UniProtKB/TrEMBL annotation:
This is Glycosyltransferase family 15 protein. It is found in: Membrane. Keywords: Glycosyltransferase, Membrane, Signal-anchor, Transferase, Transmembrane, Transmembrane helix. Belongs to the glycosyltransferase 15 family. It comes from the Eukaryota. One of its GO terms (cellular component) is Golgi apparatus. The keyword Amino-acid biosynthesis does not apply. The gene is TBLA0B04730.
Amino acid sequence: VRPTDYIFPELDVLQNVTHPIDDCEHERAALVTLVRNSDLANMLHTIENIESHFNNRYHYDWVFLNDDDFTEDFRKETSEAVSGKTFYGKIPKEYWSIPEWIDPEAYQSCIDQMVSDNIIYGGSTTYRHMCRFQSGLIYRHPLLKQYDYSWRIDSDIQVMCDIPYDIFKFMRVNKKKYGFILSVREYLETIPSLWYTIIEFTEKFSQYINPNNLMNFVLDGEENYNLCHFWSNFEIVDLNFVRGEAYQAYFNFLDKAGGFYYERWGDAPVHSLGALLMLDRSEIHLFDGIGYHHVPFNACPVQNDIFVQNNCDCDQSTDHSWETDFFCNALFLQSLAHDNRVDNLFHK
Ligand code: GDP
């Protein structure tokens, strides 16, 4: 079947996109994974999955990043499994440690409180380094300089369907800058002051706020955050956006506010609010038809013709994409369709 013969999902019509036809042109793009040596077994399983559903036809590079040195064994096994070139980078120490503006005693008492409140990863400093790094520092890594797009692949994810087109070309042709597959609600206890800090950013740096933004997706009807965010363990981004002046100013502002450590801000709400504030609403894309699994949630195409066309290997009854309450994909589409900018305090 040639790409032109594919059935296009209704969602693509709604989002006004077309699927590119394969040609010999390769995008400047890479698959990017933050991973430890001890994750090798999971990593190989994930590589095999992404290769068989996508990359064995396109041979994109794969960049592996680690806060430690990669072992010879890790390099050998992964480079043999990837059909494109592989690159291995070490994260500079200052990108993986508590910044000097964080007060050690205040930090310790925040940690103690979060542990006693049983907040997920509340006691972990490493997890905080990981979230801070993924939130903004990762895009400064020299290994990513040569690319325009990255697809974040965590070490423990699975795609459940064939991807019958070049996902990076799709981004470029359709002028997309941020792509996601699932959106969920954040645990409020991990981000108590994030919303306030975001408002402060919009006041101090109003020049970076896109007048045609999609912030109405995350407003709860009043002026508060409804906690919806893109689940960033699947994420395709335009690197020129996230390493550009506006996004990096946004990241620096949040970093200085201290919430990556004093609270436990995740990279998912940080990326999401950045994209929602600073991109045009048409530049954010919900990918459908791919199928996805990362503990504990699934996306599995519910439309039978898409499910069959893309050889999906998942259980449609386990799909979380269209559930409401905790999940936000339906709300995302509604927000796109209903231009309620009039009521949106983020439209100047
Ligand atoms: P979760 O999805 O929020 O539970 O986070 P994970 O623990 O799955 O981590 C997200 C990604 O970062 C995965 O690809 C992990 O392999 C990787 N990762 C997490 N912690 C570390 C770490 O301390 N060092 C390195 N190098 N990678 C990490």
